[in-house]
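Record format v2
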Amino acid sequence: MKKIFRSSIYCVLILALLMVSGCWDSKEVENLAITTLVAWDRITENGVDQWQITTRILNMAGNQGGGEGGQKPGASEILIKGKGLTAQEAFLDITKRLPSRIFYQHSAAMIIGERAAKEDLPNILSNVMRFPGTRYRNFILVSRGEAFRSLQAQPELVSLLSKEVRMLANRTAEQEGASERVTILDFARRTLREDRDTILPEIQIYLAEEGEKTASPTVLLEGLGVIRKTKLVGWLNPEESLGYLLVTGKSQDSEIPISTTYGGNILVSYFLTGHKSEIESELIEGKPRFIIKIKADGVVHEINAPVLGIEEIPLLEEAASKRIQEIVWKTISKSKEYDADFLGLNENLHRYHLSDWKEIESHWRDFFQDADIEVEVEAKVRNFGASTKKLDIPQ
Amino acid sequence: MPTAILFVPGHTVDDAHQSAWLTPFIAMSVGFAVLWIAYKMGKRFPRHTLIQYVTIIFGKTFGKILGGGYIIFFLVFNLLIIREITDFLKIALLPNTPIWFLSLIFILVGSYGAISGVEVLARSAQFVFPIFVGGSFILLIPALQEMSLKELLPVLEDGLIPVIKASITPAAWFGEIIILAFLFPFINKPNEVLRKGSFTILAMAAILSIDIILALTILGSDLPGRLAVPTWKVIRYLELGRTFLRVETLLIFLWIPSAVIKFALIYFLGCLTSAQVFGVKAQFKVFIPMGLILWGAASFLFSNTIQLNEFLNKIWPPFAFCFEIILPSAFLIVSILRKKQSR
């Protein structure tokens, strides 16, 4: 009797192994259509406003063939488009055509088209945040014009466009001072705060010039789109974007050349390798006052005259500080122009000076235009590359 | 605790925003009060469970009615544990698998633990707990570089009141220590209960607080209150370089055993209570009807996570407080007044 009981238990346990495949949620990798990039656009077709969703999907079949034959190894991606009255209908339009189940969890980035960012950003954001499969670490970008066009671009040095976009967004853009690294989580976190506005990194299309031997068109990340509350209101050019990074960020291994002149008009390139910034805020007679303090570290390799010596350092530092200040001021004036506090100045006031913040909390936007803003920059020149003394190269 | 880690951040952040990490330390006081009451009662009746000494204090009829109340308490308690587990699995991993199937599996495994008795459960808890805590701390390492501590500022933006309000839900979790009153006869070193119990409460408060800080510093002060399972989103966000991705599966792996043990323990206590109330000698007979009731209730009582969260936030705390602190303290007062104790 006991033996039968035991053996029946073992049978049940072994049968239970069958369930390990995932019950109702069993999915085979071969049957997945893995999306890597998703573009969200608003378009008007036949007088009807619609969503247009474009995705890059990993091409599994191409991948298998690539291994054996003499073709270029590595995966490839297909590009497909769906349309619908709601975003989900547009997604359905895509899935209808696919023989396999679509899988969003692995995508690298989402790109929002200009019109969608102007009209329907809250909808996109809530859609993405609620979808259980979203990884908050995915990057979020905005493009001028239709986002669809940036998905048509070709990868340059890696096999997949998605990989290229991910690498650009993850490291390159911020390191080179071109744009910020913004994940879905970063964006959502800033958008949900009522005491600030935010930005989105801009993805651009680059057309190869004649004679360049590379794929074309390709993408690059440069510039920022300004989001006021939840609407795209304007753009920052590369210089203003650099100013944004200098104010908000902290960098350790950046490689940003900033050109400036000193001592009359000797052109010199200050090579920024790292910086730290700090915002101080207070309320003076009901008027907010912000002090932005930036400490920059850099080296100088390139100069238009053979004068690099230790005695030049203070002059070079002064010139670099002045130039950085100028760049930051351009960003600040753009911030006032768009009436969007994307630098997070008021957030700082809220966090560190609660009682001051309570005074202006309900109408802080009214004060932003005539807030006192000061910029203090302390740029240091660490070395002149590999030389310690003047290189007397005859001009 | 395994269930608290998943659901408490959401409940507390909703009210207390960036100050939510303080709530476990306020809620902890309820835990200490309940522990003290359970300990005092255990001292007075060292060989009896709560149900048995309630009968001694109040006489048979009234004792049975109160016992019936506790059966319902354990049923609801258990039902919530199952729902928390299954809802989480449904959100996180198995969106297409029906709840009835998930809860059936949990009840089957849990009943096996409950039938084996309290000793087996204690031993397995001893085995699982260090792995659970150790594993969670390993997950903390990638979290450290993502944390932005300024999300915790400004501290106490709207004063203490929202924080106290937000403490109510976790307080119900801390009150769960009332199960000691049912376990007292099984404990072989009753004198250490107070010391070890206090240590447990402190450790739990610290772990919960770290958990909430993680949710706050990574997700910000608004988002956790709006997500169904914020801890899950935090873990999903973590990665160690580009090598260790998708670490969230590890969390589930660690979390399910501890959740099953909690379920099995409460299941065991529910059955023990009903056996004692109805005077059934063989506890075994109670398991099957209890299991069936739980299965049915878990599958059909709540239709979604929103309802579950509403229940956990609004209805469960007062209900739980009633059985966790109000009734036990009444028992203690009455037993002192009527000078009842077993010898």
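The interface with chain B takes residues 19, 22-25, 132, 135-137, 185, 188-189, 192-193, 350-352, 354, 357 of chain A (CB under 8 Å).
The radius of gyration of chain A is 27 Å.
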